[in-house]
Amino acid sequence: MKRFVGIIMATAALATGAERLYFNDLEAPESLKDLANIETALKSSLPKARAATVCLELGPEKGSGSGVIISEDGLILSAAHVTGGVGRHIEAVMEDGTRYPVKTLGLISTSDAALAKIEGEGPFPYVEMDKELGTRLGDWVMSLGHSGGFDKDRGLVVRLGRIVRMANRTWQSDGTLIGGDSGGPLFNLRGQLIGIHSRVGQTKGENMHVPLEEFLDNWDVMMSEKFVGEGPFAQRLKGRLGIRLEDDSTVIREVVEESPAARAGLEEGDVILSADGTEIEDIEQLKAVVTARYEGERIQVAYRREGEERTTEVQLGGLEEKMPQLPFSMPKEDSGEEDSEGDEPEEADEQDESSETSPEEPSTETPGEVAPEAANDQES
Amino acid sequence: MKNVLITLCALALGCPLSAQSLEAPFRRKGDEVRNSFEEIREDLQKCSAVLYTQRLAQGYGVVLSADGYILAKASEVDAMDEELTIMVDRKRFTEVERVATDQNWDVTLLKVPGEGLSPATWQDEEPELGTMVFSNSGTGRFKRRAQLGVISAKAREIGGEGLAALGVGLDMEAEELVVESVADGSGAAEAGVHEEDVIVSLNGEKLGKPEEFMDVLRDLLPGDEVTLGLRRNGEEMELVVTMSVRAEIYPEQLTRNDMMSGEFSKRRTNFPRVIQHDTPMAQRTVGGPLLNMRGECVGMNIAFASREASYAIPAKEVQALFAKLKGE
Fold first, then answer.
1. Which chain A residue lies closest to B153 (C-alpha atoms)?
2. ipTM for the complex?
3. Which of A37, A160, A168, A354 has the most B C-beta neighbours within 10 Å, making it the best mutation to test the interface with B?
């Protein structure tokens, strides 16, 4: 009978093409040999996984998270609370310290999934995704990430665990995560990507991930730079251009460096004629049009330069690029040690007391946008 | 057929799949998983020493020799004021000699009158990333639990601001070394250094810039004495100041990750070299051996740095420290 079951399982595996590692089908490893096989699988998955895992630096005083490259042309999977919004310009740091500019794409603010893309010439090192979605409860997994931020001497940090809980859009593993790991990859021991780190609970055994399925289900909408949902992992920001106009006219007095307007080619002296289909007569009107739209959205701006009328497409930035402040609970005393006479203290199994694992924030309050503007010096 | 119907109904109603949860014994720290490395637990038990005060287990040490040399974490042993007893495997020792300490590595060599103990067997080569490792969990009378983890990051030096501090803050704007603040309870406060004193020399050497001054201080250890030449109200004077433990006079600013971690070793910085692993640690499980899957000792657990990071002194350095401290 047992043999019969074995044959059926083998056939099933062949049929789906997803061959499972045998130790994942044991309730627990039975011997040192099983552990040795887990170690071997982990070690052989590591080189590719490390090469494709990046630290995502969000900018000065804005902290960092992690991400993973999944295509030769530099597409990155991360967490919504790391990328924070659509169309943001951030930086990816490889384990060896190489840096690349990255632009954030769409995100699902309700489940903490996000895409981003390296802006540069590939090919980049990348990992394969487990598109068969073959992960089961109890599977051995490895977590990678830039815990606490990028550290060249240390490199990235690997942790071993098992999938200990699977709910609809959240998995939990017992490989311990911390701030800075957010957005980093969860792998099966074949080195395939199966999820993205999202948040932690109070004990070391509670580490939450967004399963890959959530990304695959929302792939097109994220690729088309959509901000989906109303939090809690990211807040939609009102649009911003990054220009100042002369008083009583629509002539650009200043274009803020690296602002959406600057990226779209607008310059000092240009005369704004219309924005998003509305004729513009003063700064208030422009502000109204821009703030009616959201960060990451694209609008057409018509302007006059040297007597010539021109049009450009601007991808809006966001007003007040602030980190979402999720409730953060202090961990209870988790000794990590057990009284050997007693029973194992039950690790809390629920996710409701969880807090975000990152982005690894600076210890001080995160300041908003730099340089407060003078009252009459309105920017839009 | 009935079953199929029920399943379909459930799907049609869009009922969420109920959450599946792995029972505690099958989790990484669970008993069923631990059973697979029972042999390693036995190896670990033999070469581990448990440090007790008043019958409470306070920490671990590594058994270095059959005749009872044990290496433990100095900052933890120092905090154990009361009478120390040590248990190795199932033998209890009440006579414990504190032989010597190395502050740079935060280790103390202890000696108990042992005979025929089973010291750690060493693997000198540093384990590579992903290597499975085992260390002690809680302590019990006859049995200690072991838990598994992996080598989780590159071996490296863990920096810091230096172990010792004088206890004075300097006015960085001033031309001279003007004392701006004196930390309460510091060696400087005890020696009578005042605010607005001007430091003119250190151990008889004239000083110029604050950086020069700090370079000299950085390499000093707590307990070292320095002679400060001061000018106060136009008068020159000399004071002998004992260097304080930096962490005691300047409490660390907690980061968000520290708060997430909850508990961590008081001394977790300024180590010349560590290997990092993800074996869960606690205050009372630091100091013991870290074994590989062959039961060989790859290091000595020296700090529980955060929720996800534990540090161990590599095996080679542990042996060198033993040789050095034994000779002192």
1. A157
2. 0.83
3. A160
Listed residue (A266, A270, A52) closest to A156, CA to CA: A52
Q: A-B interface: how many C-beta pairs under 8 angstroms?
A: 203
Position B251: which residue type?
P
Q: Does B41 touch chain A (CB under 8 A)?
A: no
Report the alpha-carbon distance of residue A236 to residue A36 in Å, rounded.
47
Burial class (CB in 10 A: 0-12, 13-18, 19+), B75: buried
Using left for φ > 0, alpha for ψ between -120 and 50, and beta otherwise, residue A321 falls in beta
Quick count: other Cβ atoms within 10 Å of Cβ A141?
A: 25
**Residue range(s) defining the domain that contains residue B40:** 31-159+269-327
Mean pLDDT, chain A, integer: 83
Per-residue pLDDT tens over the stretch B190-199: 999 999 999 9
**With a CB-CB cutoff of 8 Å, which residues 255-294 of chain A face chain B?**
none
User: Using omega within 30 degrees of 0 as the cis cutoff, is the peptide bond preceding A232 cis?
Assistant: yes
A175 close to A80: Cβ distance less than 8 angstroms: no
Smallest Cβ–Cβ distance between A337 and the set B27, B31, B282 belongs to B282
| Residue A170: partners with Cβ closer than 8 Å, 6 or more residues away | A198, A208, A209, A210, A211, A351
B310 and B212 part of one domain: no
User: Is the domain of B153 the same as that of B37?
Assistant: yes
Asked whether residue B189 falls in the same domain as residue B317, the answer is: no
* Angle, CA of A202, A205 and A208, to the nearest 5°: 80
A-chain residues near B25 (CB < 8 A): 28, 344
Task: Please list, in sequence order, all residues whose beta carbon lies within 8 angstroms of the beta carbon of residue A375, skipping any fewer than 6 positions away.
Answer: none
Residues 115-134 of B with CB under 8 A from A: 128-132
Interface list for B 217-276 with A (CB within 8 A) = 253-257, 259-263, 276
Q: Does A184 touch chain B (CB under 8 A)?
A: no
Q: Do the domain assignments include residue B254?
A: no
Question: Using CA atoms, how far apart are residues A93 and A99, in angstroms rounded to an integer?
Answer: 5
Asked whether the bond before A47 is cis by omega within 30 degrees of 0, the reply is no
- To the nearest whole Å, the CA of B132 is away from the closest chain A CA by 6
- B255/A363 touch (CB, cutoff 8 Å), yes or no: yes
Q: Is B178 within a domain?
A: yes
Q: Do residues B91 and B136 share a domain? A: yes
Instruction: Mark the ranges of chain B whose per-residue pLDDT is less than 50.
Output: 1-16
Domains of chain A are: 20-228 (2.40.10.120), 239-318 (2.30.42.10)
In a domain, B1, yes or no: no
Given B150, B260, B281, which is nearest A160 (Cβ)?
Answer: B150
Chain A residue nearest residue B157, CA to CA: A153
Of B247, B255, B257, the C-alpha closest to B306 is B257
Q: Which residue of A has its CA nearest to B281?
A: A336
Average pLDDT, chain B: 88
Residue B78 Cα, gap to closest chain A Cα (Å): 21
Q: What is the pLDDT of residues A220-262, one digit of tens each?
A: 999 999 999 998 999 999 999 999 999 889 999 999 999 999 9
Same domain, B44 and B155: yes
Residue A31 confidence (pLDDT) above 60? yes
Residue type, B123: Q
Q: For position B176, which CATH number holds?
A: 2.30.42.10
Structural domain count, chain B:
2
